[in-house]
Amino acid sequence: MADATPKVILPKVQAHRGAKGVRPENTMASLREALAQGASWTEFDVKLSKDGIPVLYHDQDLKRTSGLDGLVKDYTFDELQAFEAGAWFDESYKGEKIPSLEEVLQFHIDNGLHANIELKPSDGEERETTRAVVDLLARIWPKDLAKPLFSSFKRESLEVARDIAPDYPRGLLLYDDLSDWQIHAKNLRCSTIHLWHKMFTPELIAEFKSEGYGIATYTVNEAEIAINLVEMGVDSIITDYPDSIIQALKIK
Ligand code: G3P
Ligand code: MG
Fold first, then answer.
1. Range of the domain at 73
2. Per DSSP, which regions of 87-223 are E strands?
3. Residue with CA closest to ligand 1 atom 7
4. Could you say which ligand is closest to the alpha carbon of residue 116?
5. Quick check: pTM over 0.70?
6. Does residue 111 sit within a domain?
7. 197: Cβ below 6 Å to ligand 1?
8. Ligand 1: does its nearest atom lie under 6 Å from the Cβ of 41?
9. Does 200 reside within a domain?
10. Active site residue 184
11. Looking at residue 163, which CATH number applies to its domain?
12. What is the 55 CA–ligand 2 centroid distance (Å)?
């Protein structure tokens, strides 16, 4: 880890897209449920509306969770507000909206929740997505609260974060390609590495640790796998079922 890299103490459990296992992902209902289940941290995905407002949405297109053709980035925030974000999961969540990051951050502030903000830009918006998120945080995030963690698969997004918001910790997201991870993590002054759970080996964990990185993994929904990874030295489990993983890890 490079000097002057912000420090972050990862929690044992992070609620993936809220409590994605039992609520429609990346909605206020999902985040409220994560809090109710005892999560102290949430993870969620952020991209921009056409008019540059950061919103929570995983996919680039609206098909899977809103049932519409087209891309998130092609609709203004007001237009997105008319779209459905809950009914695809279950009729009882009909009426859930695509939340603005502002509403979500305010919820975290009000409830003392920590946030892992995954910068998940639409194609071509890698840099402006980070800028918009940083602008919003500068406007509303209280100075005395621990700063959210930025994570991203997109190195350009983390590069902008490093340059304009160096005090916010950064996490390098990796799937199954570990090539040059040391160079990228160092260059981006990352505090944490977030790796797909099937990739871990004792050697790799030892290497992450010896370089001083916090280690997170996704998406782990089975108690036995979570316990095994924590025993191997993984610090933080990102899960769709925070309550069952909290219980399995005997956090409370
Ligand atoms: O941040 C971990 C995880 O959320 C990354 O994958 O596709 O669920 O955003 P994805
Ligand atoms: Mg994510």
1. 13-248
2. 114-119, 149-152, 170-174, 192-196, 214-218
3. 58
4. 1
5. yes
6. yes
7. no
8. no
9. yes
10. no
11. 3.20.20.190
12. 13
User: Is residue 4, in this structure, part of any structural domain at all?
Assistant: no
Please give the chain's pLDDT, 252 residues, in tens. Answer: 666 799 999 999 999 999 999 999 999 999 999 999 999 999 999 999 999 999 999 999 999 999 999 999 999 999 999 999 999 999 999 999 999 999 999 999 999 999 999 999 999 999 999 999 999 999 999 999 999 999 999 999 999 999 999 999 999 999 999 999 999 999 999 999 999 999 999 999 999 999 999 999 999 999 999 999 999 999 999 999 999 999 999 875
Which residue's CA lies nearest to atom 4 of ligand 1?
16
In a domain, 225, yes or no: yes
Q: How far apart are CA 99 and CA 102, in angstroms?
A: 8
Distance of alpha carbon 178 from its chain centroid, rounded? 20
Q: What are the DSSP E strand ranges found in the chain?
A: 13-16, 41-48, 54-56, 114-119, 149-152, 170-174, 192-196, 214-218, 236-239
Task: Please tell me the total count of domains within the chain.
Answer: 1
